[in-house]
Every structure is written in structure tokens, then in C-alpha cells.
Specification:
Elements (H helix, E strand, L loop, with lengths): L4 E3 L5 E3 L20 H17 L6 E6 H6 L8 H5 L5 E3 L5 E3 L6 E5 L2 E2 L16 E8 L12 E7 L7 E9 L3 E12 L2 E12 L17 E15 L2 E15 L32 E16 L3 E17 L5 H6 L1 E21 L4 E22 L14 E25 L2 E13 L3 E16 L2 E12 L32 E15 L2 E19 L8 E21 L2 E17 L8 H9 L2 E2 L6 E9 L1 E2 L3 E12 L3 E2 L10 E2 L3 E12 L8 E8 L7 E3 L10 E2 L4 E9 L1
Parallel strand pairs: 6-9
Antiparallel strand pairs: 1-2, 3-8, 4-5, 6-7, 8-9, 10-11, 10-37, 11-12, 12-13, 13-14, 14-15, 15-16, 16-17, 17-18, 18-19, 19-20, 20-21, 21-22, 22-23, 23-24, 24-25, 25-26, 26-27, 26-28, 28-30, 29-30, 30-33, 31-32, 33-34, 34-37, 35-36
Length: 719
């Protein structure tokens, strides 16, 4: 794992960059058929693009392609599991992660361009195998980064492969896992292309809600594809198009022995039937995301810019049990469909005013059309909540919204001295959707390198985070009065944009050659703190606001590399609290609202302690390289109900420790053996059973247990 502070354009280069997390991704050499000037031009344009959007003063955790392949699971690992090895990243259910104890608030970029977020669910939109490098930026981000600011996940695609080639592989093992994948890359004159595809199938698409080795009704099928095409127009310009698709089908796992949600814990009566085995529920969810980007880049002398229009379509469909199991057990059966079509343009540029000043500027516009259709089957009830008919009613609640995001920024990177850099600026953002808000957000970061092995950074950022429009489906609560879907609270104030003051400071120190440590601390003051929770049978999260909140944390990281050995370790301490629910109040019980109105409580995703670490050894064994690798994750436990039943999120789940092991043999030949790699991985080596969630807490649905021990093997052939 590595933490680095980037100082581009000020002559300081890359600071505090341990090898286990590297910033410079390896480039593929050009074949003899590719003119070398084309390769040089592509590399120059890549460097110019990166210089437009540096992470000045922020913390950068970076993993290049070589190190990605060295971790357990290699390139077949999910993106969330890759990011869990960064400091301050917390594991949650449904494959989600939290950066510095924030819920969601992550931005994803491909080659510097924002890809609008998809509707949240279980599947990952992006496949790590498409990346040459993966960066996680945290801290007080410079002005070019807006909207989602707890972290920026930046992927650089495998776009510099001008030689013809590719790979094909198969990975599989425990719980019926099958994962074939393939990629192809090459060039023709000025054109450069890369395509990748994968299919995944297993019997643990969603975390198991019960403490058993195998889940009930938990099969998944997932398809992903990605394509990249680049045309170098001249020595100073390039046109690039890339896009991808992700399609996932998920069974919702079952919990045997579930009691009913009717009066006194009884089941509801559906057409004379009130018995149903919860182990036989057949709920399903489908998730679809398609995205595309067209980018024009110009890299002249003093002026560099990139203009990138983009489009994204996302849809989630939840279907309840067709036999009426949801109605009998819960009294409600929702067939819900959410969709979002987003189009916009992002433009970023830089202009070198002098040797001491680099000006950066940009604009952003996004239009999003969201639609929601929820068809609910419910029972009529009397004033005491008792069922008055066993024949369900069908009520359809549909709506849509057209919303926009606007943004513009300007900043100056000022090299005060050869060792001291000040990056200051501001951005203006506005949202016009379910809320109409705007904010001017100043940003300032200072980086000081008093000696070759020491780097200090200190920063402040004012952040503006609009609510995720694709997750908001404003219901017509009056439709459900007198039914089993009626809410105790009928207040539904609109979800607001979060406003934040963010302070961050830290130091990176080289103790000795190959051994580096970093210490970082942060404090956040929040108004309209955004959070998300699961408040219905559909496993799509819904946003709400706390009136105010705060968060703080300290992160310590260390890295050692010597020859063939790479080791890293991270530990983080932090928390986040909020007070007063001021939107979507109908999600909550009256006693919860009353307590939170007057007391700060932990947010449900706040975790006191998080730690991760690992290492690898590269052994030259005469037939190639043998690479054993290991990593671990420790979590102190997310929030849960108060054992005394008084404080929402007042309890904490037990801590857990899991470790994974992998070993890969990479062959150098001869003949068809060249480029062949075989690997064996064991996840959760000690077969620990641990809770990620127990089903309690504010906005928490069913319980989820971490996966038990799994054994996987893979083979990959590069050509």
C-alpha cells in the first residue's frame, strides 16, 4: 500500500511513493510494426493529460498493473477488494466500501473523466482487469474535484499497448465460481485499441444473511465488457472513445424461520393462506449500467486541455416472490424499477503562466433524467393496523425528474520556493433537481519538502455534495394510507446537498532506503450530512440528511520494499456522528426521530478501527517467477442497535480479522508456455465466521455474514 503527495509542475516530482503502491504504471513496449514516434507522442499526451488533473496536496493511494497482479486473486479480484487494502477504507455489506467513515460519496473516473455513478446495488460497474493503474485520492482535494469528495477512484485504462496481443484466462473454485475473461489490444497506424470482456457466475452474489457456509437462493450471473479506441491526430492532439457495460442478475438470499411482520408477529393472510416458509422466497434483482465517453485532447506548449462529452444509462429492477411470500411475511410486495439516463460534458485545462505559476481551469455540466415505478401489492388495514381483507390491493406509484449539475473551477499552482508549493483556488457548483442549491467552495493546499525524504502537507477544502438523484424516488405517501405500507411518519422533506468544511494534514517520511511511513489526520464539519439506508424490500439504498455532523480520523501507513520483497501495513482510527433527521423522515420510527433530534449518534457505517496489510515475494525459480502473496483485513465492527434499546446505532458489532493467501507461477517459456500463468488462492484462510451487519441499526436491512473459506484456481495465457 502506498500513500503519496503529488507535486506536478513544481519540480518536486512524486514524493513518498512506496513500491507496494506505485504511481507510474508500466507501459507496453511498441512492436517493430508501430512507428516509435507514435508511441512517443502517445506517452507525451498521457503525461499532459495527467498534468491537467493532479492530486496536489491530497493523499494518493496507487496500485499499478504489476502490483495488481501480485495480490491474492490477481486481476480477477473485485474493485472493492482492491480498495480495501488502502488506509481508512471500511468493508460493508453488498460489496460496498466506506472511505474515511463516509457513506458512498465516491467518485469514479476513467482516464480523468467522471463516469456518472450507477444506481447502487451488488454489482461493480468497473472491472480491475481493464486498468493499467488504480488510484484512490482522499483528503482535501484540489478544485478540479467536486460533487463526490470522500474519495476519487481514478482508473487509467490499458491504452498504451501499441503492440498486438492480449490474454485469455479462466478462474474458478468454491461456491460454484466460474470466471472466464479475455482481452485484446493492438494498433494500426495512429489507431490504438483495447477491448476486454468477462463473465462471472457463483452462488454467493450477495452476502449470506445466516451463519452457514453456503447461502440459500444466492446465485448470480454477471457480464462486463469494455472497449477503448484512440486516434492520434497530430503531435499535439488525440481523439479517444471508450465505454463499457455491466449487467448483473442476483438472487436475494433467504433467511429460514423468519417471522411475520403483522400484529403480534403474525403472518398476513393472502387469499386464505397464512403459512409460508421464508427459506423458499424467490426475490430477484437485475442491474444494468452502460457508459460511453468521447474525449478530445490538445497538448500544446503552455496550453493543455481535454473536452469529454459522456453518457450513462443505469437501471435496477427488483421483483418480489411470485408466490406471494413477501405479502404473507411482510404484508407488502414491491415490484420496483429505477432508471437513470445521464449525459453531459467535462472540460479541463491548464496554462503555464510562468515557471512559478500553473493555472488550471474547467467546467462541468450534467443532465440526468430519472424515473421510478413501484407497483405495490398491499393489504387494507383498520386504524389499529389489523388486516380487513385477505385480497391484496395493487397500487402503482410512479414519477420522474429531470435534473442538472453545473460546475466551474479555477486554481493556481504556485511554486513559492523549490521546496514549497501552494495550490489555491475555488469552484462553484449548482444542483437543480429535487433540490435547488449552489455553493462557492474555496480550496487551498500547501506541500513542503524540507529534505529529500520528508514531505509535509496541510490543506482546507469547502465541499458541496448534491444528493444522488438516481436514488431518490419521492413517494406519494397518501396512496398507501390505510394499508400495510402506510408509514408512521408522513413528513417527507426533500433530500438536501451536504456542505462540508474539511481540514487535513500529514507527513510522509523515508526512514531508510525502501522503508517509508506516513501519518495523516483529518477533521470534517458537516451541514446536511448525507447518509443512505435500506428502508424497504428492494435492495436499493435511499438517501436522507442529518441536520449537522462531524467526522475525524487518523491514518498511519508503512511500506517496505527491498529487492523481491514488498510489504505494507495500514491502521486507521476514526468516527462519524450526526444529529437531527431533516429529510425523508417517513423512513424512521417516531422514537428514533425524537432521540436523534436532540443527540449526536454514530452513523451506521462508522467504524472505530480499521487495519489492512500484506506483502509478496518474487522468486526467480528457473522457469519464470514464483510469487507467493498474502493480505489481511481487520475491522472493529460497524454500528448496531443499542443493547439497552435507547440510543440508535448505540451498539457495535464484534471485531473480525480475515487473511487471504495466493501463489502464482509465471512461466517464461519455451514455446506455448511463454506468457502462461497459473495461480492458487485461499480466501479467509482461518475460515472465520463474522458479521458485517446484524440487521439492526438506522437504515440497515437484513444481516450479512462475511464469506467463509474459499479455494480458487486460475490459468491465464498472454500472447
Amino acid at each position: 500500500m502506498r500513500r503519496s503527495v503529488l507535486l506536478l509542475g513544481c519540480g518536486l516530482g512524486l514524493l513518498a511513493a512506496p513500491s507496494a503502491w506505485a504511481t507510474d504504471a508500466p507501459t507496453d513496449p511498441a512492436s517493430d510494426s508501430t512507428p516509435k514516434d507514435i508511441v512517443v507522442t502517445a506517452q507525451k499526451l498521457d503525461a499532459a493529460r495527467d498534468a491537467i488533473l493532479p492530486s496536489l496536496g491530497a493523499s494518493d493511494y496507487s496500485l499499478d498493473r504489476t502490483l495488481l497482479e501480485k495480490q491474492p486473486g490477481g486481476v480477477d479480484r473485485s474493485l472493492s477488494k482492491v480498495l480495501l487494502q488502502a488506509p481508512g477504507v471500511t468493508l460493508d455489506s453488498y460489496g460496498s466500501i466506506h472511505v474515511r467513515n463516509e457513506h458512498a460519496n465516491l467518485q469514479y473516473r476513467l482516464n480523468g473523466v467522471i463516469v456518472p455513478e450507477s444506481i447502487s446495488g451488488f454489482g461493480s460497474t468497473f472491472d480491475p482487469r481493464i486498468a493499467d493503474s488504480i488510484d484512490l485520492l482522499t483528503g482535501t482535494l484540489p478544485a478540479q474535484y467536486g460533487y463526490r469528495t470522500s474519495g476519487v477512484v481514478s482508473l487509467k485504462t490499458r491504452s498504451s499497448a501499441f503492440d498486438d496481443g492480449g490474454d485469455v484466462g479462466f478462474y474458478g473454485g468454491s461456491r460454484g465460481t466460474l470466471l472466464p475473461s479475455a482481452s485484446l489490444h493492438g494498433a494500426s497506424g495512429n489507431l490504438n485499441y483495447f477491448v476486454s470482456g468477462s463473465y462471472q457466475e457463483n452462488d454467493l452474489g450477495v452476502e449470506n444473511p445466516i451463519n452457514t457456509r453456503d447461502a440459500i437462493h444466492d446465485h448470480t450471473r454477471q457480464y462486463r465488457a469494455f472497449g477503448y479506441l484512440s486516434d492520434i491526430l497530430s503531435d499535439t492532439s488525440r481523439l479517444t472513445a471508450f465505454g463499457g457495460t455491466s449487467i448483473g442478475y442476483f438472487q436475494i438470499p433467504n433467511r429460514p424461520g423468519q417471522g411475520g411482520a403483522g400484529p403480534n408477529g403474525m403472518n398476513w393472510n393472502l387469499n386464505g393462506i397464512s403459512d409460508f416458509d421464508s427459506a423458499k422466497l424467490d426475490q430477484n434483482q437485475r442491474e444494468i449500467t452502460h457508459y460511453g465517453v468521447l474525449a478530445y485532447q490538445y497538448a500544446g506548449g503552455a496550453l493543455n486541455f481535454q473536452v469529454a462529452p459522456f453518457v450513462r444509462y443505469s437501471q435496477t429492477l427488483f421483483t418480489p416472490d411470485p408466490q406471494g411470500g413477501d405479502l404473507i411475511l411482510a404484508g407488502v410486495a414491491d415490484n420496483s424499477r429505477l432508471s437513470s439516463l445521464t449525459a453531459g460534458v467535462q472540460a479541463d485545462g491548464s496554462y503555464k503562466l510562468s515557471d512559478s505559476h500553473m493555472l488550471r481551469f474547467g467546467v462541468f455540466f450534467q443532465n440526468e433524467r430519472t424515473r421510478s415505478t413501484v407497483t405495490s401489492r398491499v393489504f387494507p388495514v383498520d386504524g389499529d393496523g389489523n388486516q380487513t381483507s385477505n385480497v391484496p390491493l395493487t397500487i402503482t406509484d410512479s414519477g420522474g425528474r429531470n435534473g442538472q449539475l453545473y460546475g466551474v473551477y479555477l486554481q493556481d499552482e504556485w511554486s513559492l520556493t523549490p521546496t514549497l508549493t501552494l495550490n489555491y483556488g475555488a469552484r462553484f457548483d449548482a444542483v437543480r433537481a429535487y433540490t435547488r442549491e449552489q455553493q462557492v467552495s474555496p480550496r487551498v493546499n500547501m506541500v513542503w519538502k524540507p529534505s529529500e525524504g520528508t514531505t509535509f502537507h496541510l490543506g482546507y477544502a469547502r465541499n458541496f455534495t448534491p444528493p444522488p438523484q438516481e436514488l431518490i424516488a419521492a413517494p406519494t405517501l397518501a396512496l398507501f394510507a390505510g394499508t400495510t405500507k402506510a408509514t408512521q411518519i408522513t413528513t417527507a422533506d426533500p433530500v438536501r446537498a451536504e456542505r462540508e468544511h474539511y481540514f487535513d494534514g500529514g507527513v510522509q517520511q523515508t526512514i531508510m532506503p525502501g522503508f517509508k511511513v506516513g501519518l495523516d489526520a483529518y477533521y470534517k464539519i458537516k451541514r446536511n450530512l448525507l447518509d443512505e439506508g435500506q428502508f424497504g424490500p428492494s435492495l436499493v439504498l435511499s438517501p436522507f440528511n442529518y441536520a449537522k455532523g462531524y467526522a475525524w480520523g487518523v491514518e498511519l501507513s508503512a511500506n517496505y520494499t527491498h529487492g523481491a520483497v514488498d510489504l505494507y501495513a495500514n491502521v486507521a482510527r476514526g468516527e462519524e456522528k450526526g444529529k437531527g433527521i431533516i429529510s425523508s423522515q417517513y423512513f424512521f420510527a417516531p422514537d428514533e426521530l425524537a432521540y436523534i433530534a436532540n443527540h449526536y449518534i454514530f452513523t451506521d457505517h462508522s467504524q472505530n478501527w480499521t487495519a489492512s496489510g500484506g506483502g509478496s515475494v518474487t522468486i526467480h525459480d528457473g522457469i519464470g517467477t514464483l510469487v507467493p502473496t498474502v493480505d489481511f483485513l481487520y475491522g472493529d465492527g460497524l454500528r448496531a442497535d443499542d443493547p439497552a434499546g435507547i440510543v440508535p446505532n448505540g451498539g457495535k458489532l464484534p471485531s473480525y480479522f480475515t487473511a487471504n493467501f495466493g501463489i502464482a507461477q509465471n512461466l517464461d517459456g519455451p514455446g506455448v508456455l511463454k506468457g502462461l500463468s497459473v495461480r492458487l488462492d485461499v480466501t479467509n484462510i482461518f475460515d472465520k465466521s463474522y458479521l458485517i451487519r446484524d440487521g439492526s441499526g438506522v437504515g440497515v436491512g437484513a444481516p450479512q455474514y462475511g464469506a467463509r473459506r474459499g479455494v480458487f484456481a486460475g490459468i491465464r495465457k498472454s500472447f
